[in-house]
Amino acid sequence: MPLYPDSQNRINTLYASVSGKLKAEIQAARKSDETDDPIDVLVYDPIAIHLTHFFIKIHCSANAVTLLSLLFGISGSILLYPKDLLLNLAGIACEIFAAILDCCDGQVARLTHSGSRFGRILDGAVDMINYLAIYIVLGFRMMDEPVPFTSPGSVFWSWRIWIVIALAIFLHAGQARMADYYRGLHLYFLKGRSEDYHSRAKDLKAEIAALPAGTSFFHRLCLKAYLLYTLAQEKSTPHSQQLLTLAESGKAREGLAAAYLDHSRKIIQVTNVLSYNLRTYTLFLFLLFKREGYFFLFVFVILEGIKLLMTARYEAIAARLCAEYAPSSSSQAESKAERRDR
Question: What's residue 14's pLDDT?
Answer without folding.
Answer: 42
